[in-house]
Amino acid sequence: MAARKTTKKPNVSAEELKAYYHDMLLIRRFEEKAGQLYGMGLIGGFCHLYIGQEAVVVGLEATAKEGDSRITTYRDHGHMLACGMDPNGVMAELTGREDGYSKGKGGSMHMFSKDKRFYGGHGIVGANVPLGAGLAFADKYKGNDAVTFTYFGDGAANQGQVYETFNMAALWQLPCIFVIENNQYAMGTSQQRSTSSAEIWERGKAFGIPGEAVDGMDVLAVKAAGETAVAHCRSGKGPYILEIKTYRYRGHSMSDPAKYRTREEVQKMRDERDPIEAVRTLLLQGEHATEEDLKAIDKKIKDVVNESAEFAKTSPEPALDELWTDIYATEIPQEA
Amino acid sequence: MATEILMPALSPTMEEGTLAKWLVKEGDTVKSGDIMAEIETDKATMEFEAVDEGIIGKILIEEGTEGVKVNTAIAILVEEGEEVGDVEVSKPAEPAKPAKNEDPKDKGGADGMDHPAPAAPEADVTPDWPEGTKLKQQTVREALRDAMAEEMRRDENVFLMGEEVAEYQGAYKISQGLLDEFGAKRVIDTPITEHGFAGIGVGAAFGGLRPIVEFMTWNFGMQAIDQIINSAAKTLYMSGGQMGAPMVFRGPNGAAARVGAQHSQDYAAWYMQIPGLKVAMPYSASDYKGLMKSAIRDPNPVIFLENEILYGRSFDVPEDDDYTVPFGKARIWREGSDVTIVSFGIGMTYALEAAGKLAEEGIEAEVIDLRTLRPMDTASIIKSVKKTNRCVTVEEGWPQGSVGGYISSVLMQQAFDYLDAPVINCTGKDVPMPYAANLEKHALVTTAEVIEAVKTVTYK
Asked: Does the structure show a pLDDT above 60 at B104?
């Protein structure tokens, strides 16, 4: 597959490019393994895979610095891996075991890491958007220059509270980057059938929030746009919207037969627009890496993912006492 | 190495399915993402994709087979040049290791209640303030304002947000003067957008601040109930204790006067049900002050249910900047031996008035003010009922799923042998609040009803 031109080509080193390849592939292999474990009944409930959307979080995490926060909806495994959370802890949470990030009490949709400033993992579509603005509010209140990446989908973009939040974020100049991961389908309803605007980011104009649409299958384009957004927010100019046009290859959740789109549509995206293949081509054509180098990365990732699966299978179920813990805090949670 | 392809679970509830169609045959090469089969679940026909690369060595389950259990081997995948051979078929997914302390015999009692629910405290009868404490007369409104101001002086992460809290000085003048003292950074007027600003408040609490979110009334707070319950109350649990929402949601609750059905609802029973929330519904000014200070300092989300009619009432309040009242400790306003009247919030006005009139007739009622509904001081109720053997509850909210209904169930389970009469719940009527003055009066609980209930349970 030929490398595509990116609209804005940031200056990235071969090492950075290799890191993006690694991070995106890790998410993909992790998700494939999660799908497999779901099929085996080891993961229960809902399980929403991120396959196809990897360039979004990897491109944006490349623009984050220490102290920045991130929050997303239920399709959250990729975000956790991209911000450096431990694959073992994530997978063990998926299997509902004591070594999971939430001791097995959260599951796929409700995982958090105070340490990595990852504030979930939220199961109510759109509800994480005001929460993200609230995190940004806290940073502004404290007077630091941190920003919050608030991710949501094209489906959530039709919830009223998103626009309540846009209004207050603009009014109070909150350092919040609203990242609309537009994968074109809100569960089974296409954007055309659910959303009056063709360009969702343009809704920000009504609130005076700048933004742009970004090719989400191109990690370099995502990174470039992310840098613009981060610079805007960090300098105290208020929120910014990135509508990142992406695509999920898998169903909405594991139990989605995906009859609302054709097999050909999915295959075409996979063949022509795959974000990981694109970086692979860049690496090889630019002679930044050899086939052997990439195989070594693949192998390393396979080992990490297999180990996470093994860890998640062998970690014990939470002790029954855990049913009764963490309902009330006895002291103020310390800030990370 | 040959690997088994297992019948996948394709929905949260799937246990078996029909292998509708094979789209590959033995000898075909597959790679990750290729569709191998169509599988019918109870809900839909799903395409089943390959996860690994390999060659279909053998198909074990014919297409058209119904009732194929999840995790049954349906095919064998081999690598190039490898024979199917004698791959051992069908190892089910290894069951999870049981938890360390999981005793199979320990499955809970028949009532399912043998685990400790948030431990009910022992009845604590120490007075709220030591004898000789200097007292002043203060309205509930002033007590609330002082509590917030004192806590804002104490901790700069405490801030107040809500509609009209700053420049307007509060729709009910609770935040009067706070903008002047603390400035617009910490006393924040919001747009009329309850769901949104409640969510921003919760996010700010996640981020290390201590928000006080004012709802102009709790009726409007219903717009924000998802953020209160799903985001504020549950996050500590869902995150395995990593993060929560230390904050206060406050505002007037229940009926004011003549404002009709949409502005006159009592949410006590609603919020009392939610694990992860604490709920206060005080009556007197000293309790408003002491509990508000405790609520602001509490590391959990607190629902603070105030009452517009009580805002202007005056009570004794200790002159002490550090006066707090603990959650889960009831206050006994009146001791008596004939009947226990349990109430909270504005319900206390009926309870105390009824007790006064009953005393004139020689019936001595013990009146308990719960002050907080979660945690609830059931120990004090039970202790009192063991003495009086009778109980009447009083609240303005609706009867079905009421606070009184819960108290009755606690007494049935924990003090049944001490009861000499059925517990009576005096509640608001089971109707939306009417506007007409006479109808509204009847829709609320009345003192006469409390007196009648007491006479019924005392057989007088």
From this structure: no
Whether B376 and B310 map to the same domain: the answer is: no
Contact B5, B88 (CB under 8 A): no
Nearest to B6 by CA among B58, B54, B76, B96: B76
User: Would you call B235 an interface residue with chain A, using a CB distance cutoff of 8 Å?
Assistant: yes
Same domain, B299 and B186: yes
Does B195 contact A160 at a Cβ distance shorter than 8 Å?
A: yes
Residue B106, pLDDT score: 45
Which residue of B213, B238, B303 to mutate against A (max A Cβ within 10 Å)? B238
Q: Report chain A's C-alpha Rg in angstroms.
A: 19
Domain coordinates of chain A in residue numbers?
A: 14-309
Q: What are phi and psi of B370, to 5 degrees?
A: -65, -35
Beta bridge partners of B135: B318
Q: Cα A177 to chain center, whole Å?
A: 13
Q: Which CATH class is domain A14-309?
A: alpha beta
Residues A48/A249, Cβ–Cβ less than 8 Å: no
Report the C-alpha gap between A173 and B185 in whole angstroms: 13
Whether residue B350 is found in the same domain as residue B217: no
Helix then strand count (H, E) for chain B reads 13, 22
| CATH number of the domain to which B206 belongs | 3.40.50.970
Which chain B residues are within 8 Å of A102, Cβ to Cβ? 238-240, 242
ipTM surpassing 0.90: yes
B80 catalytic residue (yes or no): no
Q: Which two tokens stand for residue A334?
A: 């310390």
Q: Which stretches does DSSP call E strand in B221-362?
A: 247-252, 278-280, 301-306, 314-318, 331-334, 339-343
Q: What is the CATH number of the domain that holds B66?
A: 2.40.50.100
Question: Phi, psi at residue B379, to the nearest 5°?
Answer: -60, -40
Number of domains in chain B: 3
Closest chain A C-alpha to B67 CA, distance in angstroms: 16
Examine the domain organization and report whether B197 and B304 are in the same domain. yes
User: Element (H or E) spanning B365, and its range?
Assistant: strand B365-369
Partnered with residue A244 across adjacent β-strands are: A181, A214
Domain boundary among B78, B95, B120: B78
Domain match, B309 and B210 both = yes
Which residue, among B281, B294, B300, has the nearest Cα to B232 in the 3D structure? B300
B82 — pLDDT class (breaks 50, 70, 90): confident
Same domain assignment for residues B182 and B290: yes
Q: Which domain holds residue B397?
A: 331-457
| Residue B314 CB neighbours (<10 A) | 15
CB atoms < 10 A from the CB of A324, how many? 13
Residues B255 and B201 placed together within one structural domain of the fold: yes
Could you confirm whether B156 is annotated as catalytic?
no
What are the tokens at A237? Answer: 């100019």
| Statement to judge: residues B248 and B204 lie in one domain | yes
Confidence at residue A233, expressed as pLDDT on a 0 to 100 scale:
98
pLDDT at A3: 40
pLDDT of residue B35: 85
Cα separation of A211 and A240, whole Å? 5
Token pair in block for residue B444? 């609320």
Question: One of B4, B194, B306, B395 is an active-site residue; which one?
Answer: B194
